From TrEMBL:
This is Putative glucose-6-phosphate 1-epimerase. It comes from Photobacterium lipolyticum. Transmembrane segments: none annotated. The keyword Isomerase applies. Signal peptide: none annotated. GO terms for biological process: carbohydrate metabolic process. It is an enzyme of class 5 (isomerase). GO terms for molecular function: carbohydrate binding; glucose-6-phosphate 1-epimerase activity. Belongs to the glucose-6-phosphate 1-epimerase family. It comes from the Bacteria. It catalyses: alpha-D-glucose 6-phosphate = beta-D-glucose 6-phosphate. The keyword Isomerase applies. Keywords: Isomerase.
Amino acid sequence: AVTICQFQDVKIVRIIHQTAEAGISLHGGHLVWYKPAGEQDVIWLSEKAEFDTQKAIRGGIPVCWPWFGKAGAPSHGFARNSQWTLHEHRENEKGVIVALTLEDNEETHAIWPHKFHNQLTFEFGQELKVHLTSTNTDDHEWSYSGALHSYFNIDDINTVSITGMGDKYLDSVQGDIACEGGETLTIDQEVDRVYTEPKNPIIITDPNNQRQIHIENQGHNAAVIWNPWQALSVSMADMADNSYETMVCVESTIHGQGITLAPGESHTLSTIVSVSKL
Ligand code: TA6
């Protein structure tokens, strides 16, 4: 079943199905939870998340668009702070499909002077699929970057390892210097990296939860991995001081110059997430 309910200041599309449960905030087109049947939450949501239309929700899958990070203002673009429209939903025995849309309007023109149509399609079942299709509806070409900035739920960052993201990265903690690291990442301090030759799948191994999370990205040119560690968590009002221990972001990212679309052209950025037992 698909229902819409109000939570604090935002409307949430609630999905309840034999294969999975999930919730999407129309503010931001932001997935806020996803739990396949018989599993615990796969996506992390901050216990101090604020469902306020003036800010982005902490956790879930923020949609960063039409730029990533501080390539423009506001940081990570305006899509995560825009009101999306529920376009359609369908279900069968395998799962539920929900599509949202966002089009340019006066508010977006004030920030970014281009016409666009975005469709965000979620497929919920034993797997989670998220597809963001951006179409140029203007009469001139434009470029964009962005990310599906997924926060994953883990038991303890100190025990987790991540593989499959490649070994070349720009280290944002050290002023974006180019680095080469090992194929396996363990995290014991703030990590903020743009992996520039990403492979598939990226796998988060979470021994305490006896599971692996598999992340298959498409339409991207980079994978960002982020954990704020303690000092940064303490500095963020919408994160509990130690909550960095139970999350890690692995993001399907379009980085740098981004994608250029001529009038009428489209591009899709995707992430596909599944879980297996260890
Ligand atoms: O994707 C990593 C990152 O760009 C970090 O640099 C960090 O700031 C994070 O995203 C969260 O950004 P936000 O604007 O949501 O606080």
